[in-house]
Amino acid sequence: LDLRMNNDDLTDQGASVVADFRPGAAVHHRFPVNVVRFETAERAMGIGPLGVVKIDVEGGEREVLRGLEERIGSDRPAIVLEILPVGRAEHVDRLERQQDIEAFFKRMDYRMNRIRNKGTGIRLEALTAPIGIHDDQDLSNFIVLPAERNDALFPELGRALAQQ
Question: What is the four-CA torsion angle of 144, 106, 15, 25, rounded to 10 degrees?
Fold first, then answer.
């Protein structure tokens, strides 16, 4: 895939393989990057059952989740991910990606919980409504738990985060 960098820094943390993820932003560098399917990496690395999955791929979360769907369904791991803000309503593709992710978790019977890291320290809050359109980067981090374990893990994770 093409890795697009929207600033001149070759260590651009916001680089993305999603075309036009940042509409209107100039692309300063493009590099081809190799990607593999999870099944290929799993065979090569001997990956066992998934307990926790961390996803931070600058807009490619939907594709990663789709690639892991079977394993998420069977292993029921906790999923920690960043979903960058849509920003504005005219960013239709980003909103659609976000809504697809929310629908994926609903279909898989997972509960989304936002990790808040503003003001009074780190805390966890249940997401009871759609993420919606916003531009607050501090609202971008989530821990998503299987419904059958959410009620037991939520308070424990909340306490652990508060101690950070």
Answer: -130
Contact 85, 139 (CB under 8 A): yes
SS3 string of the chain? Answer: CEEEECCCCCCCCCCECCCCCCCCCCCCEEEECCCCCHHHHHHHHCCCCCCEEEECCCCCHHHHHHHHHHHHHHHCCEEEEECCCCCCCCCHHHHHHHHHHHHHHHHCCEEEEEEEECCCCEEEEECCCCCCCCCCHHHCEEEEEEHHHHHHHHHHHHHHHHCC
Q: Which of 22, 18, 19, 56 is nearest to 7 (CA)?
A: 22
Please classify residue 68 by burial: count the beta carbons closer than 10 Å to its beta carbon, then call 0-12 exposed, 13-18 middle and 19+ buried. buried
pTM attached to this predicted model:
0.84
The tens place of each residue's pLDDT in the chain, 164 residues long, gives 888 878 887 877 777 777 777 777 888 888 898 988 888 998 999 999 999 999 988 888 999 999 999 999 999 999 999 998 888 887 788 899 999 999 999 999 999 999 987 766 788 889 999 999 988 888 999 999 999 999 888 778 777 777 76
